[in-house]
Amino acid sequence: MAKQFETIALIGIGLIGSSIAREIKDKGLAGSVTVSTRSEATLKRAQELNLGDRYTTSAAEAVKDADLVIVSVPVGASGAVAAEIAANLKPGAIVTDVGSTKGSVIAQMAPHMPQGVHFIPGHPIAGTEYSGPDAGFIGLFKGRWCILTPLPDTDEAAKARLRAFWETLGSMVDDMDPEHHDKVLAIVSHLPHIIAYNIVGTADDLEAVTESEVIKYSASGFRDFTRLAASDPTMWRDVCLHNKDAILEMLSRFSEDLAYLQRAIRWGDGDKLFDLFTRTRAIRRSIVQAGQDTDMADFGRHAMDQK
Ligand SMILES: NC(=O)C1=CN([C@@H]2O[C@H](COP(=O)(O)OP(=O)(O)OC[C@H]3O[C@@H](n4cnc5c(N)ncnc54)[C@H](O)[C@@H]3O)[C@@H](O)[C@H]2O)C=CC1
Ligand SMILES: O=C(O)C(=O)Cc1ccc(O)cc1
Questions:
Q1: Does residue 42 have its Cβ closer than 6 Å to ligand 1?
Q2: Is 109 in the pocket of ligand 1 (CB under 6 A)?
Q3: What CATH number matches the domain at 180-305, 1.10.150.290, 1.25.40.10, 2.60.40.10, 1.10.3660.10?
Q4: What is residue 199's predicted lDDT score, i.e. its pLDDT?
Q5: Taking the model in full, what pTM does it have?
Q6: Domain 5-176 has CATH 3.40.50.720
Q7: Which residue range or ranges hold the Prephenate/arogenate dehydrogenase domain (predicted)?
Q8: Model-level ipTM above the cut of 0.95
Q9: What is the CA(189)–ligand 2 centre distance, in A?
């Protein structure tokens, strides 16, 4: 495939950054890739995995001659990274990110972006519960959505280049208003993780009462929750703190609906239960039909088994 950028800088080289690095190398999308991350140990591992061409713990150093900068760090670290790289960004460079929240990332990064640099926030809706440079794999973004949340004055040509990049990685790309993104993602991604953390925590608290039977007899329903609840604590702490309003709004709706369900169970209202379960089954079936049901964890494990 053709080279799309002369130099790409990857700031943060965990699951997402290293998946992007693998894709760039595999498809020959850059003349040169500079990998940067804060910790020496992670950088060393990235080098062992041969994820880039140059390696540095200085994000400022990494972006010096980059045409595309992709920031793939926990959303709480976005502001610090933006402040560190700002003075060294090349005029005309595209700066993007992959953070799970967008309003907060824009608030943290946009004020640092110099004139002449194209800042286009993004979010690939693809991942697994694994983290770190070993967790990435080719194919993670294939058939998945990538949402761009451009600012009002975004250069169309720069946006088209970033869109083409994600499409080369196999993604379908949509533009969205950041506030809307944060609401949609709160219900489809953030709440499921919070519910998973909560139910697994509750089960763990009950261990003493149930004499370890919770884990011993865990059925597939509970196991599905444990997969989500195994996701990276730093990343999800940051998501909760940085999409607070939308998450609290969705949690309040969720609690109301849970109370409705609780009441139907208490009063033996089978019709209400049956109606809800019928409606939700149809949603699952429409997702499966749309081909969005791949279990990313299994996909990830499969990809890693093949290494
Ligand atoms: N894990 C997932 O399933 C998905 C994650 N995201 C988003 O992608 C971003 C990265 O997530 P992952 O790759 O999963 O995380 P990860 O934990 O695998 O990797 C994070 C990387 O950031 C580095 N890092 C942390 N703080 C830093 C700082 N201040 N300066 C420089 N590097 C720093 C770490 O060393 C590591 O290389 C997050 O914003 C997350 O919300 C988006 C889609 C899916
Ligand atoms: O592992 C899963 O099931 C996920 O939901 C992955 C994921 C996590 C965070 C995102 O912002 C996008 C995708």
A1: yes
A2: no
A3: 1.10.3660.10
A4: 94
A5: 0.94
A6: yes
A7: 6-295
A8: yes
A9: 6
